[in-house]
Specification:
The chain is an alpha/beta fold. It folds into 2 domains: 113 residues, Rossmann fold (3-Layer(aba) Sandwich), CATH 3.40.50; 63 residues, Winged helix-like DNA-binding domain superfamily/Winged helix DNA-binding domain (Arc Repressor Mutant, subunit A, Orthogonal Bundle). The protein has a 5-stranded parallel β-sheet, sandwiched between helices. Helix 1 links the parallel strand 1 and strand 2.
Length: 237
C-alpha cells in the first residue's frame, strides 16, 4: 500500500483525476443511505478507526453536499436506487470516489455500478479493519476487485430477522410488489416470495399490510425522501 503523507502537512491540489497520491490522513468519508439506523450502524463500525477515517457527513436520504474523499453508500433496501443516486453524486462532483456497500453483488449489478461511475463495490461480510483498508485503497486509485458473492454469514444471520429479511420488510413498507423488490435487489421473484413467507412467519402476520406496519419496530419505517422519489418515479411511468 502506498504510504500516506503526514497529517500535519497541507493537502496538495487535486490532480484532477479523482485521486491524490499525497492525500493526508484521515480519509474523509460521507455515509449515505435512506435509513438513519443503517447510517448510524456504519458510523459505529468506523468509529474505532478515527485516526484513519473522518466521517464528514451523514446523508440520510440525500446526497453529500460537501467535499469528501469517498462516499460510502450502503445499498440497504435499494440497489438500483443506489446506482441511480451514485450517477447523480458523480455528476455533482463533490466526492472523489463512490463505494457501494452491499450484502451481495451479481454480475449485472457490478456492471451497472461500473457504468454509473462507482469506484468499488464492497461486501458487508468484510471486517471493519478490512473495510477501512479497502476505502484507503480506493482513495489511492487502486482497483478493489470483487467476485460474485452471495450474502454473508455470522452474527447478522442470528438476529430475529436477517439483514436480507430487513431489506424486504423495508420495501414492503414502501409498498413494493414482489416483482419490484426482485428488480431492485437483483433477485428472482421466487426468491423474494420465499423471503416474504419467512417474514410472515417470523413476524406472526398474515399479509403484506400487517408486515409493513411492523417495519417501524425495526427502525425501517418508510423514509420521506424515499417515498418522494418513489412517487415521482411511479408518476413518470
Amino acid at each position: 500500500m502506498t504510504p500516506h503523507r503526514s497529517s500535519d502537512e497541507a493537502r496538495p491540489a487535486d490532480t484532477g483525476n479523482g485521486t491524490n497520491p499525497f492525500r493526508e490522513l484521515p480519509l474523509e468519508v460521507a455515509l449515505v443511505n435512506d435509513y438513519e439506523i443503517i447510517v448510524r450502524g456504519l458510523h459505529a463500525m468506523l468509529e474505532p478507526f478515527s485516526d484513519r477515517i473522518a466521517i464528514v457527513e451523514h446523508d440520510v436520504g440525500t446526497s453529500p453536499d460537501r467535499r469528501a474523499d469517498v462516499a460510502l453508500f450502503d445499498t440497504f433496501a435499494g440497489r438500483r436506487d443506489a446506482i441511480q443516486r451514485a450517477e447523480q453524486i458523480v455528476r455533482e462532483g463533490l466526492v472523489d470516489h463512490i463505494v457501494l456497500y452491499t450484502w451481495d453483488a451479481t454480475d449485472a449489478f457490478l456492471e451497472e455500478a461500473r457504468e454509473a461511475g462507482v469506484s468499488a463495490v464492497i461486501l458487508k461480510s468484510m471486517a471493519g479493519a478490512d473495510l477501512v483498508d479497502a476505502l484507503e485503497r480506493v482513495a489511492e486509485g487502486d482497483d478493489v476487485e470483487l467476485s460474485q458473492t452471495e450474502g454473508a454469514s455470522g452474527a447478522a444471520n442470528r438476529e430475529p430477522l436477517s439483514m436480507r429479511e430487513r431489506e424486504v420488510l423495508a420495501m414492503l413498507a414502501l409498498g413494493y410488489r414482489n416483482a419490484e423488490i426482485a428488480g431492485e435487489l437483483y433477485l428472482s421473484v421466487d426468491t423474494v416470495k420465499t423471503y416474504v413467507r419467512r417474514l410472515f412467519q417470523k413476524l406472526g402476520v398474515n399479509n403484506r399490510t400487517q408486515a409493513a406496519l411492523r417495519a417501524g419496530d425495526y427502525g425501517l419505517a418508510p423514509p420521506a425522501s424515499r417515498i418522494e422519489r418513489l412517487s415521482s418515479e411511479r408518476a413518470d411511468r
